[in-house]
Every structure is written in structure tokens, then in C-alpha cells.
Fold these 4 entries.
Entry 1:
Amino acid sequence: MAKAIDHDVQPLEKWRDGVMTRMRVSALSGGHQLCIFEQYCDSGLGAPMHIHAVEEVLEVIAGTAEIAVGDDKLIVTANQSVLIPAGKRHGFKNVGEGILHVRATLAASIFEGAYDDKSETSRRWSPQD
């Protein structure tokens, strides 16, 4: 049965200092093949280098991001996206003045990432949480 997901009532979650995340779709909301979330990052902050076993699309909604994919660094602004291949090291940071708003879509319903920084949480939004 189809249902509407009210994103206005989904909470913001602090992933790290200066980075707030709102889950839009995942295994917890009935997703089977997608994980979609938004992040709001203070200037200079974002996601450290990591990999996923699946493809990811990073879309800048507002602000300016520097997105690193392997050895490449791209400056990405509003209404631009970067497709990140499965298994490719990547990360991003806000290189603008205001808040960076990005939307990430992963080809899996559970967020899993292997971070260079082992203190980072590697799995989120698992149905067993």
C-alpha cells in the first residue's frame, strides 16, 4: 500500500559537529533499494573521506561544495550533482559562506560507509536499531 512520508516531521540528527542530517527514505520508512537523506553543513564542514559498496548521487541543493572523488576535486553548486561509483573513496565539505544543503541518494536502504577515520559511525538507519 502506498503512503506519503511527511518530511516536515522527520527529525534532524547531529552526525558530527556542524553537520545535521534528515533521513527522508530508508529501510526504516519502508525503502528496499534506496537511502535518501539531506545534510546541512556549516562552513568548512561536511563528510570525511569514505566509501560505500553501492553507487551514490550527491546533489547540492544550496551553497557550494568541494566534492572529492578519488584524486579529483570538483566545485559543485546548487542544482548540480555528482555520481559516485560504488567502492570509490569520496567526501565533501562546505567551501561557501553560508550553510551547505546537500541531498544524498544511495542505492541501498541502509546507510553503510567505511570511513578513513575509524571513529565515524559506519552504519545508520538499520531496521534492527
Entry 2:
Amino acid sequence: MVKNEKNKRRQINLLDLIPVRNIDWKKEEDGLIVLLKPKFKNPLLVKHVLPRLKKPYYKIKLDDVGSALWELCDGTLTVEKLAERMKDRFGEKIEPLYDRLALFLQNLERNRLIKYK
């Protein structure tokens, strides 16, 4: 029985996770969000090279759905609550909701733009 317990993977439900923004961002005049991803992660490069660059960040522009979701990722709501709020705001426009939400959050996490707590 001990061997079976070791082989079982702990199942993580995406809907129970709480996404938290991990980078700087700004809101444009039109209400859309622009993410500011630093060009370097190495502390030495961040300290000495990044301040000297004309454009120290990659700018990632989000659409209206992505911008609304980004603003909700403040570390207080679970993914399930995010989905409910997005459904209330966008209705049928956002369907298939859970597939789109999972893909978007997966891309944000893969690029280290968000983390989960």
C-alpha cells in the first residue's frame, strides 16, 4: 500500500487556485492593459543593464477580455470566482469560458506573468 501512495500524484484543480500578478502593468486610455515584462531576469543585468536601455520592457497588449481578467487577478479571487465574474461581464461572447480561461492562465503562468498561491 505504501508503494501505491507514493505513485499517486496529487491532483490540483485549477478552479481552486488563486492567480496573482507577477509583473508591472499599466492601463491605457482606452481601458486596455499593457503588461511590462522585463527583458532580463538576471539580478546583475537588471541592476546594471536594464536601467540603461531605451526600452527595458517587452510590452504585451491585452484585448478587452484579457484586460478584464488581468485586473481580476489580484490575489483575492479563485479561478472559479474569476470565471463567474467574466461570465457575468461578457456573457456568451466568452464561451467556451473554462477552456479559454485555462489556456489564458496557462500562457500567463508559462511566461511567469502570474503565479498561484
Entry 3:
Amino acid sequence: MNKIIAVDFDGTVVTHEFPEIGKEVPHAVRVLKRLNENKVKIIVWTMRCGEHLEKDAAGWFEEREINVWSYNTNPQQASWSQSPKCYAQAYIDDAAIGCPLIHPENGERPYVDWLEVERLLEEQGFLDKIKT
């Protein structure tokens, strides 16, 4: 079975600086590439639209050679549902209750703790465990 993860953009893979692209959140690129290597389909699930999505966010993933299956939609979903909610088995979003966050000391908005997310993804079978 193909695994699908929906990943937010601002506050999740980059810090909050909309409409600009924020700083890369530590470990996000490495973990996203591991998801690609593990054949997990990534849907970017973001409030960005228009040029902010199609140029800025999509360009961010392309520049880092992270394969994105889709933006804000599950391409297979129309065959079984007309719901606008994007289907995925997991959602990584800084606004989700329970998502592990880093709270910067400088008072900036929190962002996703990708080291802890990576551990959870291994635990839940989305990523092969790294042998130590």
C-alpha cells in the first residue's frame, strides 16, 4: 500500500515569514528526502495559493529536489469522494495539536521539530528505522 503524508509549508518546512519564504526548518529537507526514499507520497497541504504556492513553495521543493506528489489535493481521491479535505494517512502541520514543536527563545512563532517527527515516522512505519 502506498503511504501518503500531507505536509504544511509555513511553520512546518520553513519558518513563518509569509508572504516571503522563511528560513528552512532544521532537518526538514533531510526527513522529506527520507520520505521520498521510502516511497511515501508527499502532498503539500498549505494555505498558500496562486504565485505564493505555484512559484514560491513549489520552487522551494524543486530547488531541494524533494519529490511532491501533489499540492493541496490528493489526485486519486476524486474516484471515491468529492470532499475537499485532502486524504492522507498522516498530516504534519505546526498548527496540529500534538505536533512536536520547537519554541524559539527569541519569541518567534514555533515551528516543527523534525527530529521528533522523524522518530514518530519511524515508529509508525512511514520510514525505515536507521540502524545505529
Entry 4:
Amino acid sequence: MKFINRNKFTIIAIVIFIGLLFLGVEAKRLLVPDDNKAAYGDRLDGIENHKLASDLFKNIETKLKENTKVLKVTNTVHGKIINLIITVDKDVTVNDAKTIANSTVAMFENKELDFYTLQVFVAKEDDALNNFPIIGYKGTGSSELKFTKDREITKEEETTDEK
């Protein structure tokens, strides 16, 4: 009992320090995101059951390049979003580009389309005209691509050096 009476302020200080330490750890856990958790939270639950075939994108690229208007095809997959970037020749019209983009939907299986979101970007190699790129988007519940609003083609004003 003598020990407690002589060191009561030290014991109180230690208890307060431990309490503040506990509160600090809890505040950090609450306020600072945990790097070990996925950036998508639980939105990717079940993705391990819906693996994409290893040669899927090579097959898509091969099929799209059969069309002579398609110059290059690249892809990225971020979580449940598949991005296809198709570069086409400069004489491709908007309707031709939409047809090319729509043909990509048939290259996926239904179970893949039900789980993944598909975004198709169609760009021209020559970007002088500003009606490109066009973007087609197919969510998990839809059956076809929805496209960005068609833009009017506008030409840049020519500059003249009249004096």
C-alpha cells in the first residue's frame, strides 16, 4: 500500500498514457486507410470465379485486325472494368467506328459480360478531326454498347497574316 501511495501520480500518468495510446491507435485505424485492403473494397468479390482466358485479348486483337481499317488494339483490365482501345484509320466514319466497337461485344462470353463492364474507346491515328474518340460503354446489366453523344466535326480556323 505504501508503494501505491508514494507512486500514485506515476501510476495515474502511466494509465493515462496507455489510454491515450489506445485512443491514438483507434483514431489512426479509423482515419487512415489501410494499405492492405483492396482499393475496390468488396466490389471485387467473386472475381476469382470469373477469370478471363489468357488468350482472350490476343484473339480479340486478331479478329479486329482482320478489318483493314483497324490499326492497333490495346487493352487494360482494372478490377471489373475491361478497357479496349482501338485505333482506326483516318478515313473511318463514326458509324463504321461504332460497328467495329459493337463487334467486340460478341467476342466475349455471356458469363464474362454479365460480370465485367466493357468500355471500348475508338480513336483515330490522325486526331485532326475532333469528332473522335468515341466511347462505347456496356454495363453488367445491359446487352449492347451505349455510345457517347456524336459530336459535330469542326475545323480549326485558318490563321492568316494579313496586314
